[in-house]
Design a protein that fits this description.
The chain has a domain of 64 residues. 90% of the residues lie in helices and 0% in strands.
Length: 125
């Protein structure tokens, strides 16, 4: 019987972890939802705190279809911001390419020396 008790304890422990993860996901979705006003968000939070199992189940039934959409939009926004930061941090490579293009245009005679210097100063600033 001790081995069976160990399995039951492990099962309850993992169920508890899943429950905490579910609540974090639901609360994150409640506060991420821009379609609801503050009173609706407060009502959902209170409902989930007062009747946790029923509240979580009803929230998933009512808002489950939009939870994934909001999560995907949030992930896409974070990826876009990360890419923008990386491109901004690695901006030297982009500037070097632009300077090479400007030098090529100057060699071809498309840009004068003054225009080249003005564009170069603008890129390096």
């Amino acid at each position: 019987m001790p081995l069976l008790n160990l399995f039951w304890t492990m099962l309850w422990f993992f169920m508890f972890i899943i429950w905490i993860w579910l609540l974090i996901s639901i609360f994150g979705d409640i506060f991420r939802n821009k379609e609801q006003n503050g009173w609706a968000k407060a009502a959902w939070v209170l409902f989930i705190i007062i009747l946790p199992l029923l509240g979580a189940l009803i929230y998933i039934i009512v808002h489950g279809h939009a939870m994934q959409e909001r999560s995907m939009q949030d992930a896409a926004e974070r990826e876009k911001m990360t890419r923008a930061y990386i491109q901004d941090a690695a901006g030297g490579a982009g500037s070097a390419d632009e300077l090479a293009k400007l030098a090529d245009l100057k060699e071809k005679g498309v840009l004068t020396d003054a225009e080249f210097e003005a564009q170069k100063a603008k890129l390096l600033a």
